[in-house]
Amino acid sequence: MKRNAKAIWQGTLTEGSGTLSSQSGALSSLPYSFKGRFQDESGQSGTNPEELIAAAHAGCFAMQLSHFLAENGTPASKLDATATVTVDPDPANGFTIKSSAIEVVGTVPGLDEAKFQELAAKAKAGCPVSRALGAIEVTLSARLG
Fold first, then answer.
1. Who's near 44: CB < 8 A, 6+ residues apart?
2. What are the DSSP calls for 14-82, one per residue?
3. What distance in Å separates the CA atoms of residue 89 and residue 138, rounded to the nearest whole number?
4. CA nearest 86: which of 100, 74, 72?
5. Which of 17, 79, 103, 131 could be disulfide-bonded to 33 (CB atoms 3.0-4.6 Å)?
6. Which residues contact 97 (CB under 8 A, 6 or more apart)?
7. Which helix (H) or strand (E) holds 124?
8. Which residues in the chain show pLDDT less than 50?
9. Contact 72/118 with Cβ under 8 angstroms?
């Protein structure tokens, strides 16, 4: 299985802008820019690669955890997962992605907190995106809601 996305960029790094599109069409000429990536903390200036990594990580983790919960005989009613990707200035390379922090709140009837923690940790380790992010710190905060 292969998936693809396309980036079109015009102009310089700080003054230019671009669009991102994905194979599925979920992203279609979605705007991105230096300002949206590095200067606008509100996130309202368009998307950026780190936001897309965070979305991929949250989605992958939630799917992996749902599988382990179902396998355990305790399927989730709801998993609310958020991944926060941190990118910081790096004197040698400009900017570097430092970490991805996953937070999940699960509604899982019939499951105790200890087993939820165990399965969440297993999902963090087994999620393909977590494994792909092996060069950075990946943390997990999990609780039943």
1. none
2. TT-EEEEEETTSSSSSEEEEHIIIII-TTS-S-B-HHHHHHHHHHHHHHHHHHHHHHHTT---SEEEEE
3. 19
4. 100
5. 17
6. 50, 53, 85, 86, 87, 136
7. helix 113-126
8. none
9. no
How far is the C-alpha of 14 from the C-alpha of 122, rounded, in Å?
A: 40
- Report the C-alpha gap between 27 and 21 in whole angstroms: 5
Pair of tokens at residue 125:
């380790």
Comparing CA positions, the residue from 115, 110, 101 lying closest to residue 143 is 115
- pTM over cut 0.85: yes
Are 36 and 48 within 8 A, CB to CB?
Answer: yes
* Structure confidence at residue 21 (pLDDT): 96
Query: b/e map of 115-126 (b: 16 or more CB within 10 Å)?
Result: ebeebbebbbee
Q: What are the residues whose beta carbons fall under 8 Å from the beta carbon of 41, sequence distance 6 or more?
A: none
d(CA 81, CA 65) in angstroms, rounded, equals 10
Dihedral pair phi/psi, residue 80, rounded to 5°: -110, 95
